[in-house]
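Below is our example:
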Amino acid sequence: MSDKPVIRLAYAADLPDLVDLAARSFRDAFEDDNDQHDIEDYLRNSMSLENLEEEFRDAESRFLLACADDIEKLLGYAKLRNGSKHASVSGEAPIEVVRIYADSSMIGKGVGAALMTECFKQAHSLACDVIWLGVWDKNRRAIQFYERWGFSIVGEHEFRLGSDIQNDLIMSKSLSFGSCR
C-alpha cells in the first residue's frame, strides 16, 4: 500500500465486502467489552447485507471506502448521513458521521485520518455547517481521535447494543469555509 489509502464512494457491488469489513471491525472494536450475544444480535439486525443495501439506497447516505492501491481490498469505511441532526447539535445544515471504522490491522496507519479528511470534504461539498457523531463513552481511543479533529462533546444519547443500553457521547464540530483539512 502507498502512504495513503485511496478513498472512494462505495458502489452496490461493494456491499458484500463492506458487510464483511463492517462485522469484523465492529467485533474488533467492541467484543472484548460487551456480551457476545449482544454483538451478534446487533450485527444481525443492523449490519446485515439487507440492512446495508437499504442504507445504501437512502439518498441522504453516502458510504466512503478506504482501499489499498488495488482499490479492491477494503481497509476501512465511513457512512455519512446528510441532514441528520441530534437535538444537542447546533447548525442549520448538519451531516452525521454514522460510522467510521478501520480494519484492526490498519489502526494507527492513516486510514481513519484519510476517511475523516474525506468526510470533511463531503460535508464541505454539501455546504454543511456542522458535522457530528455519536461515540460510546467508554471508547477512549475513538473519543481522543475525534477531539484531535476538533470535535467536542455537546450531548449524549442511549445506544442499544442487543439487550444492553449504553451511553453515547454526541460530539460535533462547526464548519465554515476553509475548515476542512
